[in-house]
């Protein structure tokens, strides 16, 4: 099942059987923002908004059946890598491509309600402002209401957002190195750490919605030689998905340096 077939299958299923319970079907991420930023590995990211009046058994049934459709689009395996990735999904929401939530959870910006993540992990590690802004800037309504018109406005990015981003992406990049000795595919986690660090920098810098190559170019204007080389490796990995030891090993240092710059900028502005 390719991307278009998956999107069509989800839309047909929801509108045929549950249109009375449905508020919106939202495509978000690289496939939604028309920036020409789609890497070959880019997945379809969907957010399904369900009415508050939908009974719990129906809500749970929709969730189960949509996960069944998703499994046809993106079959899962039982390797150690996939089990580790599954655990990371449940704790942080990373690498999940399908989210289902109620209307009030979205409009009230209930992070754990929308993304179904562990509340403690969300409090400690989720860079909420970056996630909300990325979702708002990079989305397309597939069916239903333009839900963002009625949601709460984002506050400006705070030091706590930067610290959560630093904690999450440091753990992700360091974990990638630790597990690379038993799994060769851990560059993917280093890539995610670099990507979400860049999104944090973009959102703090109030840059308009743009593609990752453009974000990398803007960051590189005041970057060191190793940072520029790492950004080149990052963009290359997004296209090729070939393991890259340079990206893997230097991602933690990049995460530290980027967030250190942000904290310094915050101190200057305060």
Short description:
The protein is an alpha+beta fold. It has twelve helices and four strands; from the N terminus they run H-E-E-H-H-E-H-H-H-H-E-H-H-H-H-H.
In helices, the fraction of residues equals 55-70%
* Uncertain ranges: none
Percent strand equals 5-15%
Class from helix and strand fractions: alpha+beta
What is the N-to-C order of secondary-structure elements (H for helix, E for strand)?
A: HEEHHEHHHHEHHHHH
Would you count the extended β strands for me?
A: 4
User: Main β-sheet, in a few words?
Assistant: 4 strands, mixed
What's the tally of helices?
12
Notable traits:
270 residues; alpha+beta; 4-stranded mixed beta sheet; 12 helices
Account of the protein in words:
There is one protein chain. The chain has 270 residues and is α+β, with helices and mostly antiparallel strands. The chain has two domains: 148 residues, no CATH class; 107 residues. 60% of the residues lie in helices and 9% in strands. It has twelve helices and four strands, in the order H-E-E-H-H-E-H-H-H-H-E-H-H-H-H-H. The protein has a four-stranded mixed beta sheet with strand order 3-2-1-4. The radius of gyration is 19 Å and the shape is globular. The termini are far apart.
């Amino acid at each position: 099942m390719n991307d278009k077939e998956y999107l069509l299958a989800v839309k047909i299923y929801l509108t045929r059987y549950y249109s009375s319970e449905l508020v919106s079907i939202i495509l978000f991420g690289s496939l939604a923002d028309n920036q020409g930023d789609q890497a070959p590995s880019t997945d379809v990211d969907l957010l399904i908004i369900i009415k508050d009046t939908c009974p719990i058994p129906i809500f749970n049934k929709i969730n189960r059946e949509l996960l069944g459709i998703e499994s046809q689009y993106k079959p899962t395996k039982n390797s150690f890598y996939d089990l580790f990735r599954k655990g990371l999904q449940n704790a942080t929401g990373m690498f999940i491509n399908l989210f289902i939530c109620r209307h009030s959870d979205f409009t009230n910006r209930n992070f754990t309600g929308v993304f179904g993540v562990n509340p403690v992990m969300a409090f400690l590690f989720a860079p909420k402002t970056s996630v909300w802004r990325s979702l708002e800037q990079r989305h397309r309504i597939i069916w239903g209401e333009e839900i963002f018109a009625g949601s709460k406005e984002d506050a400006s990015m705070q030091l706590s957002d930067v610290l959560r981003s630093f904690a999450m992406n440091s753990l992700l990049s360091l974990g990638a190195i630790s597990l690379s000795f038993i799994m060769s595919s851990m560059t993917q986690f280093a890539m995610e750490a670099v990507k979400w660090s860049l999104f944090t920098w973009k959102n703090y810098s109030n840059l308009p919605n743009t593609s990752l190559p453009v974000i990398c170019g803007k960051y590189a204007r005041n970057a060191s030689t190793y940072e520029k080389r790492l950004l080149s490796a990052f963009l290359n990995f997004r296209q090729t998905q070939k393991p890259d030891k340079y990206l893997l090993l230097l991602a933690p240092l990049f995460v530290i340096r980027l967030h250190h710059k942000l904290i310094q900028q915050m101190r200057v502005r305060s």
